[in-house]
Amino acid sequence: xxxxxxxxxxxxxxxxxxxxxxxxxxxxxxxxxxxxxxxxxxxxxxxxxxxxxxxxxxxxxxxxxxxxxxxxxxxxxxxxxxxxxxxxxxxxxxxxxxxxxxxxxxxxxxxxxxxxxxxxxxxxxxxxxxxxxxxxxxxxxxxxxxxxxxxxxxxxxxxxxxxxxxxxxxxxxxxxxxxxxxxxxxxxxxxxxxxxxxxxxxxxxxxxxxxxxxxxxxxxxxxxxxxxxxxxxxxxxxxxxxxxxxxxxxxxxxxxxxxxxxxxxxxxxxxxxxxxxxxxxxxxxxxxxxxxxxxxxxxxxxxxxxxxxxxxxxxxxxxxxxxxxxxxxxxxxxxxxxx
Amino acid sequence: xxxxxxxxxxxxxxxxxxxxxxxxxxxxxxxxxxxxxxxxxxxxxxxxxxxxxxxxxxxxxxxxxxxxxxxxxxxxxxxxxxxxxxxxxxxxxxxxxxxxxxxxxxxxxxxxxxxxxxxxxxxxxxxxxxxxxxxxxxxxxxxxxxxxxxxxxxxxxxxxxxxxxxxxxxxxxxxxxxxxxxxxxxxxxxxxxxxxxxxxxxxxxxxxxxxxxxxxxxxxxxxxxxxxxxxxxxxxxxxxxxxxxxxxxxxxxxxxxxxxxxxxxxxxxxxxxxxxxxxxxxxxxxxxxxxxxxxxxxxxxxxxxxxxxxxxxxxxxxxxxxxxxxxxxxxxxxxxxxxxxxxxxxxxxxxxxxxxxxxxxxxxxxxxxxxxxxxxxxxxxxxxxxxxxxxxxxxxxxxxxxxxxx
Lengths: 339, 406
Known about the structure:
- The structure holds two protein chains of two kinds.
- Chain A has two domains: 2-159, 3-Layer(aba) Sandwich (Rossmann fold); 177-326, Glycogen Phosphorylase B (Rossmann fold), CATH 3.40.50.2000.
- Chain A is 38% helix and 17% strand.
- Chain A has helices at 16-30, 49-59, 114-132, 142-152, 189-198, 213-220, 235-244, 260-266, 297-309, 311-326, 330-338; strands at 2-6, 34-38, 64-65, 68-69, 72-77, 88-94, 136-139, 157-158, 177-180, 204-207, 227-231, 247-249, 271-274, 290-293.
- Chain A has a six-stranded parallel beta sheet. A six-stranded parallel beta sheet of chain A has the order 11-10-9-12-13-14, with helices on both faces.
- Chain B is built from 16 helices and twelve strands.
- Chain B has helices spanning 18-31, 59-71, 84-91, 97-120, 127-130, 139-142, 153-161, 205-218, 236-242, 257-266, 283-290, 301-304, 320-333, 335-349, 352-386, 392-401; strands at residues 5-9, 35-38, 50-55, 74-78, 145-150, 168-170, 192-196, 223-227, 249-252, 269-272, 295-298, 312-314.
- In chain B, helix 7 (153-161) links the parallel strand 5 (145-150) and strand 6.
- The interface between A and B is medium-sized, with 27 and 27 residues.
C-alpha cells in the first residue's frame, strides 16, 4: 500500500510528535508498505494565521503522486489532518489546543477580541469538517478521545502509540529524578525544581530545551548542582539517563498522552506524575507503576523523598510499568491504521 | 479585554410571551459564556460588539425589537417563520399602510402590493388572520439579519428559499430543568389527556374534541384537560355542548407556571396538534418531553422533525380524527416506553448548556467572523495574485468548503 503520513513541522523544533511521525513511516516501511512523510512548516500566530496554515493543507493534492495512486493518508495533528483524501485516517495526537482546553487559560493565544473569538470558532468549524470527512479517527489516548467527544462530538477509537526506539536498558539507580521534556510552562518542570529546592537530599536532571529554559535555570540558581540542565541529548545518552535514574518526573498540564511514561517503563523506572496530568494517568497507576500526587511543590517533594527512601519499591513499580509498555506495539498500530 | 458583548433584545417576563419564558431560561446560561447587555424598550441601545434580536409574531412584544433591528443589523433569532401579524401590527397598526405594501411587494412583487391594497381598502379579508402562512413576510427581518438563528430545519429551509444567504445556525429549543412537582391530585381520568396552550382552530381543537368524543365511547373514564385561553372567535363551550362533552372536559383558562407543570405531570397523554404551522417550536412540547410524557403531535413543521420513537405524529388529512384517537390510545398503552424515550431525547438534544454554547458560538462568529474571513481571503487573494493564479475564486470556495471562512 502507498501511504502518505501527514504531519506539520515547526522548523527547528523536534519533539514527541515528530518522533512519532518518523517512527510511523519506519513501521510502515518495515512491513512492506511504501510510506512517505509529507509535511508543511507550521506557524500558528499571530491572529488568524492559523487558518492560513490549515488552508495550505487543504490545497495539497495527495490523491496520487507521479501518476500513481496514494492509497491512504494518515494524518496526525492539526492542521495536517485538514488535508483532503478519499481514504484519510486521522490518528490524533492533539488538536489545536489553544482553541479548546487551553482557551481562556494562560496557555491560550486567543484574546477576548471579537476577531480572536471568531478565529477560535473557525478552528472548531474546520475540525468538524476535517475530522468529519475522515474514514476513521483514532486518538492516541483516552484523554485526547475525551476532548474530541467533548468539544467536537466526535467518537474516536483509542490507539496508543509505542515510544521511540531507543536502546532501553536498566541499571542501578544513581538517585536522581529525571525530567525529559520540552522546556515550556505547560510541562511544569518548575514544580520539580521547587521540590528539589525544598529538600537538599534530592537531585534532578533535566533533559530538553525550549522557551522556558531561562526562567527554569533562574529558578534552579543557587542549588549547588542539585539540578542539572543537560539540554537536548541523543538517543544513546537518553537511554543511559533513563537507565541510571531513580524515577522519571512527568507532569504536564492535562497532557494528551506523551511517550515519556512508556520510555521510563521500558527502562523499568517508575513515573512521578500529578493528578491533573491527563494522558499519563492512563498508564501511571499510583503505587503500582509510579506515584500520582497533587500538582503542588510540597507533594512532589514528598513523593521524590519517598522514592529516595524506598528504592526497592521504585524498582518494582518500574518493572510493573515495563509490562504495561510492552503491550503497545507497532504491529497493532499499523493493522488498525490500514484496516 | 472583556468577553464579546452582545446587546440582547427580547421580551422578558412578565410579558405573556413564550419567547419571554425562553429568554428567561436562556439568559443565565448565556451570561456564563458571553457578556450580555439586555436592551429595554424606550431606552438607549446598549453598547455592544453585536446585537441579537428575538423575533416572534406578536407586534406588542416584538415591534420595538424590529425597530431596533432596522437601526442596527444583527443576529436574528427567528422563533417562527410567519411574521405577517407582526409586520401588519408595526405597519398598518401604526398607520403606515405604505410600509405594509412594501413588505407585501418584497414578498410577492406587484401581486403582493395589489393584495396589500385590497387589504387596506377592505376589499380582502385580513391576510394575517385568514392565511398568514401563504404570506409569511419574513423578508423585512431577513434583509437586516447579520446572522440567523432558527430552531428547526423547517424554518432554515424557508429562510434559504426566501433568499437569505448569510450565516445560519440551528439551535434546538432548550429544555427547562425538570421541576420537582407533584402531579395534581384534583384532576383525573382513565386516561387523562392534556392539551396545553392557546385553544383555537390552528391547534386542531375541533379535531381533538371529535377524537376524544369517539374515544369516550369505548373508554368512558377518559377525561380531557384543556389548559389555556380559547381564541376570540372560537366558541369552545358551544362545541363541548354540541358534542356532549361538558362532563368529560376539564378547563383551566389561565395557569401559573407551577400549576401548569403539576397538571401536565398528572396527565397520562399530552396532545399538541396544529395546522397550519407558522414554523414555530412549542414550549409546551418541550415541557411535555422534559416530564417524560407520551406526546401526540401533528406531522408538520418543526413537530415533524421530532424523532419517530419519541412522539406520535398524526398527519393532517382526512383521516386525522381517527388517527388522533388511535394515537392517543396507543400513547396511553405505551406511556412508559414513550415517556422514557422522550426524556432521554430532550436531555440529549435540548440541553440548556448545549443551546447556550451554540448561542455563544454564533454570537462570537457574527461579531468577529467578517473581519477574520476578510483577513484570510485577502491573504489568499494576494498569494494567488503573486503567483498569477487564474481563478482565485476557486481558492475562496475551497476555504469556504473547509469551514475556514463562512
